[in-house]
Design a protein that fits this description.
The structure is a single chain. The protein is of the alpha+beta class. It contains six helices and eight strands, in the order E-E-H-H-H-H-E-E-E-H-E-H-E-E.
Amino acid sequence: MRFSSRKIVLQTKRLQLIPLSFEHLQHCLQNFQLVETALNLELSDFQLGEPVRKAIEMKLQKMAIDPSNLAWYTYWLIVLRSENRNIGLIGFKGAPNAKHEVEIGYGLQVSYQGNGYMTEAAACLVNWALDQVPGLTVVAETNKSNLASQSVLKRLEFKPYDESELTIWWRFQAQKLT
């Protein structure tokens, strides 16, 4: 299962998903607007929180070891096509494991939440993954307090399969999403 993201760009009716290169991720840690400029996007006020910064550092380590699986390790920029503007990030936490499972994670700028963009982006990326690995199971983890993320997963027909005091784990294993 080896994939290069160099020529991959996914599109939906309203969005474009662009996988960030190793160099793009490095620039994200310095100044996110460098990436937007490099991709000819309108500049946003997007700021990386500390958890995302740490995730990028981990992604860079994995990509340095296995650059052929970049599409599974990187973040994909969510671009609102009508504005040519970055509105969030989505990606997997690595390549599918031996059980054909992969974990998805995502975040959207607050000012763009509540418009169905994340559901649209997640459906697109899950469908891409299912095209790459037939029989794939996509999992996700949410805080119990994150009702917006839970709502996205419910709309995509993910089902809860485990929980702790603070967390719910979700699973999607089926045909492509519509």
